[in-house]
Write a structure and sequence with these properties.
Elements (H helix, E strand, L loop, with lengths): L10 E9 L4 H11 L3 E9 L6 E9 L3 H18 L3 E6 L4 E7 L4 H11 L5 E8 L5 H5 L5 E3 L7 H12 L5 E4 L8 H4 L6 E6 L10 H8 L3 E8 L9 E8 L6 H24 L3 E4 L2 E4 L2
Parallel strand pairs: 5-6, 5-8, 6-7, 8-9
Antiparallel strand pairs: 1-3, 1-4, 2-3, 9-10, 10-11, 12-13
Helix pairs in contact: 3-8, 7-8
């Protein structure tokens, strides 16, 4: 059964961020009105009504969208000269392309493959890239190309070069589904705010290897996960989604790991859904999520 909602070919999403200024909502609304667009959903947020930043997400229908899309982009670019704004216009019907990077732990990978196949996340997966061959059979069972780029036989620079060659022109964003390698600033620069990572939320308390063992020894009462956009500052990029689940003294170290995998899968999937649906605006080292 197809659970994916039908996508409207005439529906578009407009994201705007700009300094707070009188008249910006009216200007954007009037522009859409001039195209006879029907606003379906309107969300906004301001950091300060006087001198802050203004953020807006508009979902609208336009019967002439296929023919008018390019002209509307030009008019928005012209408006941005009067209102110094960053904006992004996208068609709801246009599917984004997601590459997945993975190492040996495959719980997040398998979750994403299943959610995409079951149409819970509306995205295409052109490829999965890994520094280990372990997930090859799992990935190819879904009809998705799998590329093994080992690090043991080459430098990280060479491995990243090969990955970029595969990615160029074929993907819109990248998900690190427990990819246990640090990406270089050179690699990240190719996909600013387009690389989503997941990690446990023990940081900074339990940095490094075996965090669950040390969490067990400390008797933690919460297990959590954080999904965020990758930046050059390790594990400090803009946070998209977080969640926790409660644990207790009865949990063994292995129980904690299982609980951690559960929350990691759900948090990563939710962050990807919001990204795919154009519900996230990055501002500095924060995100505005119109969920």
């Amino acid at each position: 059964m197809n659970h994916e909602p039908a996508k409207n070919d005439n529906r578009a999403i407009l994201l705007i961020s700009c300094p707070e200024r009188l008249g910006i909502i009216s200007a954007v609304s009037n522009l859409l009105l001039s195209y006879k667009a029907n606003i379906v959903q309107f969300d906004q947020h301001t950091t300060d009504p006087r001198d802050g930043m203004f953020f807006m997400r508009i979902l609208f229908d336009l019967e002439t969208l296929p023919e008018s899309f390019g002209q509307l982009e030009q008019d928005l670019a012209k408006m941005a000269e009067d209102y110094p704004m960053d904006w992004r216009l996208s068609k709801e019907s246009q599917r984004k392309r997601m590459a997945i990077f993975v190492s040996k732990m495959d719980h997040c990978l398998v979750e994403l493959l299943w959610r995409v196949k079951s149409k819970e996340i509306r995205v295409d997966i052109p490829m999965v890239i890994s520094n280990h061959p372990d997930a090859k059979e799992t990935v190819e069972a879904y009809g998705i190309p799998f590329y093994h780029i080992p690090l043991a036989t080459q430098s990280k620079e060479e491995a990243e070069r090969k990955a970029l060659e595969l990615l160029q022109g074929n993907v819109d964003f990248i998900v690190l589904a427990r990819y246990m390698q640090i990406l270089s600033p050179r690699f990240i620069a190719h996909y600013p705010n387009q690389i989503i990572n997941i990690h446990h939320s023990f940081l900074p308390a339990f940095i490094g290897a075996n965090p669950y063992k040390r969490a067990f020894m400390r008797g933690v009462k919460l297990i959590g996960a954080t999904a965020y956009y990758v930046t050059n500052d390790l594990d400090e990029g803009p946070i998209i989604e977080q969640d926790v689940i409660r644990v207790n003294h009865r949990y063994t170290e292995e129980d904690l790991k299982v609980a951690g995998r559960h929350v990691e899968r759900n948090v990563l999937a939710q962050a990807i859904s919001w990204h795919v649906e154009d519900k996230v605006i990055v501002y500095g080292n924060k995100t505005i999520v119109f969920a």
